[in-house]
Every structure is written in structure tokens, then in C-alpha cells.
Amino acid sequence: MPGKDDEPENRSNNGASNDAASKETSSPSKGNSSIFNFQPSQDVKVWAKRYRTEIAASSSSVLSTFVAFPLDFAKSRMQTFGGGFMHTVKDAYKAEGLRAFWRGVGPPMISVTTVRTISFSIYQKTKYFLDRSITKLTGQSPLMIANAPGSYPNLYTFACFGGAGAVSGAVITTLSCPFELTKLSEQLAGKMAREAKAVDSAGQRINPASIKTGSWNTARRLVRDRGLRGLYCGYHLHLLRDTIGTAIYFTTYESVKQLMANARGRNPTSPYAVVVAGGLCGILTVSSIYPVDVAKTVYQKALLSAGSSHVPRPAIRVFPAGAYRGLGVSVARSCILNMIFFSNFEMVKKRINALDT
């Protein structure tokens, strides 16, 4: 019986018959588009399987970010300027048009995709590292527990998923902070210009028409006024939000998926389990870290309009009125975004895993 090393020779010896067979099988479908007959090469399949997490995360991020961006726009406006959801939407549409809801979507389409891809890669590697470490210390493997039929989440799985999420969130903040800051500037620029509250370094009011928007112009202005550190305005609040939030995010997703699928003897990637887990992880994460997110947004908005002037860092208010302004929109956005993201993420990974290599 020939082994794997004999396969190239067999293919070359049978080349003529294979070509003839392929012509016969492809002839009935000449009318169809060639895209449906595309078959990736063996090297492409191997590459796809090796980087399946990155491929699934990047494609899912592009789709979910674009679909949910208008809700992110409304959330940022409500956090900084107040008002209800419908008032915010009507005000923006009337004054700035439909394009306002996707203003600044370009940088996030690139940055969020890059950040999420790296974040998932870090999470996966850290998760396996923690699994090995916990197994050595306790004799219990969190990943084996999570994937075993009839099992339920416990302290070992929480420590593994939460720890990996916290590491991922903390590391990725260094990359994501400048991009999120410029995105926020784009989302608030129209309202800030209309209210004409921007001032220069001398404290003089600036004509709104003279304010240059755009991610590149925002970055240049921040570097001019505050140096390279200006790109990291609000970094400490951003770090706190993403470290805690990402830990909750992955712990919730993995645990709910385990409860909805493995604990009931179902496939862990069943659509029902993935959609519910994705939606709940978004809701719980946003609700938990929302006061920190509000403080970060308000602080960064003040810095964006203060030039080189000093701006005191706001306190994180947990229960007072205003601390949860825009929470409903943010929860809806996060729920929809993560339902779309994880559904596509698991589907792409499943398709790649099914490739015959």
C-alpha cells in the first residue's frame, strides 16, 4: 500500500487520466460561474488550517464592525452630549445626513480587524499556556473539562478563560488606543463643530468650519499639541476597560457555549449555542465595564477639544445618574455585533477544519 510520500508520483503518473476526468466533470457546468468550481491547492488548505483563527477573526470582524457601526456612533454621541437615542439619531441625520452614521468607519474596519485578529491569536496561545500550567499544578485540564460532554464550567475553566482574556485585552490596548481615539474624534466632530466649543491653545474660540476632521488630521493635531503621548490620551482608562472587559468577554462566551452545548451533549459549535453565547457575552461585558467606558469617552472628548491645555481625569461613577447614559444602545450594539461575529467566526473555522488536507 503506498504511503503519503508516494502521492506526488501517483498524481504525475495518472495525470492524463485525471485531466480527462476533470474535463468530463466540468463540461456540464460550463454555464456556471467559475467561482463555484474553485478548488484551493493543497498548500492553501494547509495554510488556511494553520491560520484558521486569524482568518475567521478578521473576516468576522469586518462584517460585524460595518453592520453595527451606526449604533456605535449613536452610543458615542449619547455618552458625550446626552439626549435619547431617537433624538440623537434624528439630530445627526437632519444636520449631517446618512453618511454621518458611518463617518470614521474606515479606520475601525482596518484597526478593529487587526486588533481583533491579534487579540484572538494572543487569547488562543495564552489559553493553551494556562491550560498546561493549571494541569501541571492541579491535575485538571480546563480545556478538557470545557470540551467534555456533560461537563459544567468551574473555577479551573474560569481561571483559564478569564486569565487569557485579561492578558489579551491588556496587550492589545497599546495597539488599539490611538485608533479608537481617532475614531471617537470622527464620531464627535460634527456635533463639536456645530456647538463651536473648540478652543485653541490661547483659549480663543475657533471657527467650526476651520476644524479639520479625518483620522490623519486628528492624529497630527494630537501629536502637535501633546507630542506622541497625545495618541494615548485616556490610555489608563482604556487599559482598565479592556483588561476587565476582555476577561469577562471570553469567560462568558466559553462558559455559556459550554452550558448550551457540551453540558447537554450537543456540538459545541451548534448555531444556537454560538448565537446565544455571542449575544450574552456582549451584553454582560458592556454592562460590567460601561461606567469605565463613559469616563474614558468623556475624558477623551475633553482632551480632543482642549488643545494642549490640562484636562483633569474624571472619576468613574458606578451608580449615579449619567453613568449609564446610552447603555441600552451600547448593549444592543454589542449583542448584535457579537452574535454576527461569533456566528461567522465559528462557521469559517468549521469550514476550514473540514478541508481535506
Task: Tell me about this structure.
This is Mitochondrial thiamine pyrophosphate carrier 1. Its main location: mitochondrion. It comes from Friedmanniomyces endolithicus. This protein is mostly helical and 357 residues long. Helices cover 70% and strands 0% of the residues. The chain is built from 12 helices and no strands. The N terminus is likely disordered.
Topology of this protein?
Blueprint (H helix, E strand, L loop, with lengths): L6 H7 L1 H12 L15 H9 L1 H30 L3 H12 L9 H33 L3 H6 L7 H41 L19 H12 L8 H26 L10 H34 L22 H27 L4
Q: CA-to-CA gap between the ends?
A: 19 Å
Query: Structural class of the secondary elements?
Result: mainly alpha
Assign a percent range to the helix content.
Answer: 55-70%
Residue windows where pLDDT falls under 50 for at least 5 positions:
1-36, 196-202, 206-211
Order of helices and strands: HHHHHHHHHHHH
Mean pLDDT across all amino acids: 79
- How many whole angstroms does the radius of gyration measure? 25 Å
Number of strands: 0
Count of alpha/pi helices: 12
Q: What is the 3D shape?
A: globular
* % residues in beta strands: under 5%
Largest sheet: none
Put the structure in a nutshell.
The chain is mainly alpha-helical and 357 residues long. The protein contains 12 helices and no strands.
Essential attributes:
single chain; 357 residues; mainly alpha; 12 helices; 0% strand; disordered N terminus; MCP_dom_sf
